[in-house]
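Lab meeting, action items carried over

1. Structure of the two-component assembly. Owner: GW. Status: complete.
Input record:
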Amino acid sequence: MADNPGFEANGLMRKEDERLVTGHGCYADDWMIEDCLHAHVLRSDRAHALIRAIERADAGAMPGVRLIVTGEDLRAAGAQPQRALHARSGTSGQALISPDNYPLAIGRVRYVGEPVALVVADSGDAARRAAEALLVDYEELEPVVEAKTALAPSAPQLFEHIPGNLAFDYRCGDADAVERAIAGAAHVTRVSVDSRRLVGNPMEPRSATIRFNAQDGCYDIWGPFQTPGTVRQMLAEAWGIDPERVRLHLQDVGGGFGLRTVAYPEYRAMMYAARMLGRPVRWTATRSESFFADSHGRAMQFGGLLALDSEHRFLAMRFDVVCNMGAFLLPVAPHIMTLTPERGMAGAYRTPAIAARFRLALTNTAPVSAYRGAGRPDMAYAIERLVDAAAFELGIDRIELRRRNLIRTFPYTTPLGYCYDDGDLDGVLDKALQAADWTGFETRRAEAARRGRLRGIGLSLFVEVAGNSIAESDSVRVCFERGGRVILHCETQSSGQSHDTVFRRVVSEALGLPREAIEFRPVDASRHAFGAGSYASRTTQVVGHLLMGATAQVLERARARLAHEWSVPASEIRLQEGRLRHGERSQSVLELAERLHGALDHPLDVRASGVPQISFPNGAHVAEVEVDPDTGKLSVCNYVAVDDVGIVQNHVVVVGQVRGGVVQGAGQVFGEEAIYDEGGQLLNASFADYFMPRAGIVPTITVIDHPVPCKTNALGAKGVGEAGVTGSVSALMNAVADALRPAGIRHVDPPVTPQKIWRVLQDAATAHPR
Amino acid sequence: MRDITIRINGEQRALQVDDHALLVDLLRGQLRLTGTHVGCDTTQCGCCTVHLDGRAVKSCTLLAVQADGCAVTTIEGLADGATLHPLQRAFSTEHALQCGFCTPGMIMACAAMLAENPRPDRAQVTHGLEGNLCRCTGYVNIVDAVMRVAHGG
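Predicted assembly:
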């Protein structure tokens, strides 16, 4: 474990650690809010049905029941539908068509788990019993579950205004150039990869408490959010009120991974209940409920094509992607399914012509949105499988093929128009191959074979986008508080990423102040600074950049002030060892700030805002696996991750982020998949049935930094939050493919469960008996 | 309703509980000890792990009445006054927690593991963690933290 010189004064690594290891964290369900009523959500148990009637008489009379609300009630009360955020049309000019998503179903249900009614009672038990007594008269409709089936001509239609269930047909790149390249190619490789639907499952089940204050017409909402600013706006929009009237309160969030960016229907319905009842309303999901209630992830199917010339240089890549969006488009989902993969579509390679088509299909399943990686792991998986497959087909070494096509000149603008500011792809690759002892692998494969095991090694060399945002701008505010404290207002929210630790150190170094004097306040009810929140691996680079700008302004003002007081030019005043100095005179920023407090705005208070810039973290991950052909069991023998995340702010945090991401990717590879039957029932909606990665799934994960400073932000940082998963899905799948290839298997999709591996080996042995 | 007596974090308490109340609900509700968390409903995740008479148990799968006459230690009772338990300290210094939601249950499970086997190897620690899920850390740092406490260094 590398030394981290930045520990807190009490010897702990992070400020929040003390409360979290002693059980004094405050997650959404921990808040002690007086006088709460309890809500239970009645959810559809049909995948597709008309609602003929909801009979509530018996339920309304049950003990403790305070309110029963349906979709019709909410619409009559002025509930606004939620729609997907605007997405720019691609080269085809097709516009996105979004369904209207009301908080509770109106007239029709379109997925199992869709909220149908909200029951509020004195206790959770009373609410649940009353919900069970509600009689919903459904008239079943035929459901469609698979995206490709939903797009087919005879499929059941989910929405009249979305023909063919095709919500968005997005094309990018130059399809003609790709066609010409294919026509002149010496070789064309094709793969189909299927990144199956996952359930994110952060460990904290979702919970919210909502209170309406009649005096000021404001809602107080306690819940887990990654993007407080955006969620507040969406909740306000849901009721046609100003976001100023929605205050979010949160301290600790038990994992986010993209799932906490959604302004979920439960919150929107509970706002009404809280207003009607004049008391706080609390709802906490069970884990099984979370399987339906939280947004799902992945569910992307790629058809990929790589065209090469006779020297094995890449001429063109083309992707045909079908995305299963579920029954509704969550606000940022179309963006994630199209723009995020598009930005990383060139990967690490110089390919002159690239084109893609994304078809976003609606089906009778739970809505899909961001889940750690949000299109990046899927895109990298498609690219890296293509490259490995091409290498195998051409009989050329996998590394050699990559080297021959690697991007080496920066800045590099991809054929899709995105600019990689800087990188060293040879460098990350060299480091990874060395650390993983790539050249010694065949010896290990032979040794494993003597033990009756199939051993494989796989590489993922990837470039991904970080920092993309749906918001126009981001801002931070740096304030000085009496008593010698600096307050950083950044409307973001860590769900474990150690923002407090990273940003207090950034500001401490920039202003020459001790970290103990700095307080990081991620969410403030009075909203000093709008922030787009934490997702897309953006927070360090975006917020860090703004803090650098803000602290520079603080210093400029401080110098100007002292220059006036000392009658010297400001340019001669230097910050050195924590003090602003000129000759014998010196003052720390805190001392100056303390003197300047008055009745008006503090002269050193600064707000910095800007348009966030994207960055392109990249890496080389190598996985080494073994398969036991008798049982199909897969194990990971070694895993090396080399990542260029720009200037490293905190190596320990980086290691933690990468390891966490690697294991989430391993989950997808080993067994995670949300399984729907043909009738649209989610079959594995619990931890007893849905595979979750446990300790030992990847026993060793070596994380190595290869920093190439980012040129698009003042910290030189590139996002790290998703690097682990973007690399691991493809590295592990390429390793599995390498292990199974000698047995005659060309391709297998995740999850590579023991049953699946055993089955493909059996089938291959039957087809090619030895 | 039943009258029970439980020694919670060293303090003897006489309590009235519903017959069907889960131990975790008693802890989080009536006793306001919200450090113990509910992460699932099928006994898989381990976020609710506490000690019952020194043994690690999943409090979501015990009735409160089953703890009658027993000593229960929750995460809030693990430290010795202001002095953190070595595992609590090591989890921080080894960055074995990120969001912290699984952490109380993880630490309680590890504490019981070490009480039973003070010097495990990595494989034993890994096996001992199989009842606890973590979505953030990838587990390697958690194993490191336990090994650090067990073997120093």
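2. GW to write a short summary for the group page. Key points so far: Chain B has a mean pLDDT of 97. The radius of gyration of chain B is 15 Å.
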